[in-house]
Amino acid sequence: MKTIITIGRQAGSGGREIGEKLAQHFGIPFFDRELLSRAAKESGFCEEMIQMHDEKATNSFLYNLVMDTYSFGYNSSTFVDMPISHKVFLAQFDTVKKIALEGPCVIVGRCADYALSDYDNVLKLFIYGNENQKIDRIVDKLKMDPKEAKDWMLKTDKRRSSYYNYYSSKKWGRAESYDLCINSSLLGIEGTVNLIVQAVEDFENR
To answer: How many Cα atoms are found within 13 Å in the side-chain-facing hemisphere of 27?
Structure first.
């Protein structure tokens, strides 16, 4: 296998679980929050700073100015002048590219599809779902009541969308931004995994 799978996902769609099962099926590395630890280690940023800005587009000039008093690495003059949110994005961007050079893997979120847009062995997926099923999943996974779950879902998707749209040249969740968009509510987790496995096999044999 030589394919790198990137997964964009709506909150509650099961994107992370689907990614984990794909990685297990193909016997390849899986990166979601794991990517943050590696980005911190390779960039010199503290992990808390990476997590604070994870998939968030911060546009506040004052906030970035204050946060920029912390210097955790990357000492070139142009880099030093960047807002801290941009530095964190670049750290993750670089880490995604390094991971891709190591071989096939599954990467969830972090604009990985955009970071690897020049690679011809990347299958770019987006997992979405029906609102009620997503809320039910969040209630079960995070032990929230339905109202809390819906609010968390909407805020999470808004944050992910803003981050993706801010840092990439594409639109989050739009079909034209990906190779394949799948409704996991329709197929279920296992059905979605099976569909993607077949898509990967077809992709490799094209």
So the answer is: 1
